[in-house]
Each structure stands twice: as structure tokens, then as C-alpha cells.
């Protein structure tokens, strides 16, 4: 065994370099140095002299060959994928920009056609006002001058872009109307895939409305609450306002009345709670494509004037959607405080395909009638007690249902609260008992439960 270990040791022990004597003694350490260049097994390839030359790019001696010349190592075939993708991206971006601009032009054409009428009926149209004065301005000029300064004015903006497909405007400052909101809904021209998908789904599912370009205006009546709705800066102005509105009569009887296009009548009745309280009847003076939804025929006789009928006929079937006078909520009330009447008027019209302001000439008379309708309501919408009793009974029936539902919920809450208190008392009793007392207490509970169950079974039998 010893000889075997010695043999292994000699095999791994490095051999001593021979000692060189003479002039080459200084290079003894490099006598047996291995060759650093390994032998190449790759066959030599003939290279053209022009390609063998390397261009030095820095003083460090690093050279760059053909691999770094992009124009030499690529060809047009390497960019086929990009050549297909880039035009699609450019087309989509261009379509998006075109769609947004088209929608903006259409919204501007609507406000151009209707702004004169709005400015004639309302004192303030659009979004504007005054900035609050800064502390430095108040100290320098005084509070009144700082508020009245022209620098504090915010430029009026007739139309505001809420989204790329929705524009809004606002009007206030009119007798019998607190304010009016207008919403213009347009096609999603900037996203044609979504537009086509919504159109296809509306064709197969009745619950989905087909995309359409429409204008929806909602006017909120004062209804005798001017002093609560008009903002005033101080108590003195509040007193002056109360004096001014004391002799103004802006209230009228609450009811639900509408003229609707028959194409959307069923959908409106399903979507709106207030219209579900009405009955539908055709009227001989209206076009065959329009119908009246009212709580009483007497209301129709008062509100359906000759000018309104003529304006609806001029608007046409393709444009008119609905005209609604209501004091009930849009969605079915779930609580009693949601049944408080809020009087308002709504008008919905489809927009013409043209972006020219002259395309709205057919609907301007109807829009003007809608703006002046609150005045007609204040003067004429005061009905006989029999009519109001019928309307009140419909509302009271709905309120009774809500009260019953509310009482049932409260009774259920009281029962749950009583059960929680009984459970807490039981747990406290069990904690204060010993083991034997707890066993007896639980046995009594079990026997009591069995007796109750037996009584129930006897009654059923």
C-alpha cells in the first residue's frame, strides 16, 4: 500500500525546471513556457484585401469591421414586419384624430345654431364667472374693487368637452327656471371597433340601445323656491331677494306628462320610473308616429298647444325622441326621502347627419317651445281637485309600498338586535356557572327546543 501512495504522489508532483548556466541564466524561468496561441483547427479562408483593412476609430487600437455597418449587413427584406405594422398604427392614429375633430365640429355646429336662442332666453349661457380675489388685491384695492376687477373675469365657454363623445353646456338666469343642462352625445368615431361592436350587440339584444347622436336638455323649475336656490353673498342680499320674489308665482301642480316617439316608447317605460305611472294614448292632433303618456287627459288638453303640435310635426319622426314634464324620480325610489317631488322638463332630439348649423332649422321651433314651456306651466298647469286627487292617489300607493317595505326592514333589524342581546345574556350566564350548572342549563334549553318543535309538528298535523 505504501508503494502505491508513493507512486500517486510522484505522478502529481511537478518536475523541477533544469538550471541554466551561462548567458541564458536570467531567462531560466521562461525556458519551458507554453505557447499561448492554441493551434487552430478552422481552415483558413481567403479574404479580400479590401475587407482585411480595418478602420481604427480610437487611439486604443479597437477596430470596427463590417458587422458595425448597419447599411451593409441589412436589407429591405429584414423590415417586412415593420412595413406592415407602421401603416396600421398611422391609420389608427389618423382615424382617432379625425374622429375627435369631427365630433368637435358637430358639437360646435349645434351650439352655433342654438346659442342665439339660448342667449335670448337666459342671462348666462355657458361656463364662466369670476375668480376669487387674492389677499394682495383686496389689501391694495379693497374688496369691492377687487371683486369687480376685469382681471377676475373668467372667459365664457359656451361648450365644454366632457369626453371625446360627450359635450355639455349650461344656462341660468331666467324666470321660472333655476338652470338648464344640455348634453350632446355623439358617435365614437375615434374608436370604430367599439362603435361597430355596440351596433352589433344592440341588433341582437333589446336591452342594449343602439348608438345614436342625440341632444338631451333638462330644465329644472324654481317651483316657488327661488330664495333657496339663488345664491346670495350676504344676509342683506338674502333679505332683498326675499322681497323681490315675494310677489312672484313660479309654482305649478306636480304631474307626469310626455309626448314620445313610438319607436322608443317601450324602452322609455322600462327605463324610467316616472313614465311607468302614466297611461299611453294616441292623440288625433299628433302625427301617427307620436303618442301621449299622461296621468290625466285634462293635463293633455292644457299642455298640448297648437304651437307645440306644429313644432313636433316640423321636427319629424327621424329627429324627435321625447318631451317630458315630470316631478317624479328617474329611477324607482328605494327610500321615502327619494319620493320628494323635483319638478323638471326634458327634451331629447336626434342630431342630423350634417355638421352644418343650417341642418337644425327644423328643430329650432321645438327647442324654443321647450324653453318657454315653464312659463306655460306656471300660468296654466293648475288643475281641478278631482284631477289632483287621482294623481295624489297614485303617488300615495307607491309611498305606502315603500313604507311597508321600510317597516318590514326595521322589524327585521329589531328582531336581529333582540336575538343578539339574548345571546349576549346567555353567554354571560354560562360564564358565571360551574360545570354542573352549565350541563343542567344546556339540558333545559334542549328540552325547551324539543317541546317547541313538537308543538309546531302538532299544529302542522
Number of helices: 15
Rg: 44 Å
Number of DSSP strand runs: 14
Tell me the overall shape. Answer: extended
Unreliable stretches: 38-58
How far from one another are the termini?
103 Å
Tell me what portion of residues adopts beta-strand conformation. Answer: 15-25%
Q: Which bin fits the share of residues in helices?
A: 40-55%
Main β sheet profile = 10 strands, antiparallel
Mean pLDDT over the residues:
79
What's the structural blueprint in terms of helices and strands?
Layout: H1 2-12, H2 49-52, E1 55-56, E2 63-64, H3 70-73, H4 80-121, E3 124-125, E4 127-130, H5 135-141, H6 143-148, E5 153-157, E6 160-163, E7 166-174, E8 177-185, H7 192-204, E9 214-221, H8 226-229, H9 235-245, E10 257-261, H10 265-271, E11 279-281, E12 290-294, H11 297-303, H12 306-315, E13 320-326, E14 344-350, H13 364-380, H14 385-431, H15 435-460
Amino acid at each position: 500500500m505504501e508503494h502505491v501512495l508513493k507512486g500517486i504522489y510522484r505522478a502529481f508532483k511537478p518536475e523541477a525546471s533544469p538550471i541554466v548556466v551561462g548567458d541564458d541564466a536570467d531567462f531560466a524561468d521562461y525556458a519551458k513556457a507554453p505557447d499561448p496561441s492554441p493551434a487552430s483547427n478552422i481552415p483558413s479562408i481567403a479574404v479580400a484585401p479590401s475587407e482585411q483593412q480595418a478602420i481604427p476609430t480610437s487611439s486604443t487600437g479597437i477596430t470596427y469591421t463590417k458587422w458595425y455597418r448597419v447599411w451593409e449587413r441589412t436589407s429591405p427584406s429584414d423590415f417586412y414586419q415593420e412595413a406592415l405594422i407602421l401603416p396600421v398604427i398611422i391609420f389608427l392614429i389618423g382615424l382617432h384624430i379625425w374622429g375627435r375633430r369631427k365630433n368637435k365640429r358637430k358639437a360646435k355646429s349645434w351650439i352655433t345654431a342654438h346659442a342665439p336662442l339660448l342667449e335670448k332666453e337666459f342671462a348666462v349661457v355657458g361656463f364662466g364667472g369670476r375668480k376669487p380675489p387674492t389677499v394682495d388685491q383686496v389689501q391694495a384695492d379693497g374688496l369691492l374693487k377687487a371683486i369687480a376687477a376685469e382681471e377676475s373675469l373668467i372667459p365664457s365657454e359656451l361648450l365644454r368637452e366632457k369626453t371625446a363623445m360627450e359635450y355639455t353646456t349650461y344656462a341660468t338666469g331666467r324666470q321660472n327656471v333655476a338652470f338648464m343642462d344640455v348634453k350632446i352625445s355623439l358617435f365614437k368615431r375615434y374608436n370604430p371597433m367599439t362603435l361597430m361592436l355596440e351596433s352589433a350587440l344592440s341588433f341582437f339584444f333589446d336591452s342594449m340601445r343602439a348608438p345614436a347622436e342625440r341632444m338631451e336638455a333638462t330644465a329644472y323649475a324654481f317651483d316657488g323656491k327661488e330664495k333657496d336656490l339663488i345664491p346670495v353673498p350676504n344676509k342683506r342680499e338674502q333679505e332683498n331677494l326675499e322681497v323681490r320674489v315675494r310677489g312672484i308665482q313660479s309654482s305649478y301642480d306636480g304631474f307626469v306628462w310626455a309626448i314620445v316617439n313610438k319607436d322608443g316608447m317601450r324602452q322609455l317605460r322600462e327605463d324610467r320610473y316616472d313614465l311607468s305611472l302614466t297611461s299611453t294614448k294616441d292623440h288625433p292632433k299628433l302625427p301617427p308616429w307620436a303618442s301621449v303618456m299622461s296621468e290625466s287627459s285634462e293635463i293633455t288638453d292644457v299642455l298640448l298647444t297648437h304651437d307645440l303640435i306644429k313644432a313636433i310635426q316640423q321636427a319629424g319622426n327621424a329627429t324627435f325622441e321625447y318631451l317630458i314634464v315630470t316631478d317624479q324620480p328617474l329611477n324607482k325610489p328605494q327610500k321615502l326621502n327619494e319620493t320628494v317631488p323635483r319638478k323638471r322638463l326634458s327634451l331629447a332630439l336626434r342630431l342630423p347627419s350634417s355638421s352644418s348649423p343650417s341642418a337644425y332649422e327644423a328643430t329650432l321651433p321645438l327647442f324654443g317651445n321647450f324653453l318657454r314651456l315653464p312659463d306655460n306651466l306656471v300660468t296654466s298647469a293648475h288643475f281641478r281637485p278631482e284631477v289632483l286627487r287621482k294623481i295624489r292617489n297614485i303617488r300615495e300607493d307607491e309611498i305606502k309600498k315603500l313604507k311597508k317595505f321600510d317597516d318590514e326592514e326595521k322589524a327585521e333589524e329589531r328582531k336581529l338586535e333582540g336575538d343578539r342581546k339574548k345571546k349576549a345574556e346567555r353567554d354571560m350566564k354560562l360564564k358565571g356557572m360551574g360545570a354542573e350548572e352549565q350541563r343542567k342549563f344546556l339540558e333545559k334549553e334542549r328540552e325547551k327546543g324539543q317541546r317547541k318543535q313538537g308543538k309546531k309538528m302538532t299544529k302542522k298535523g
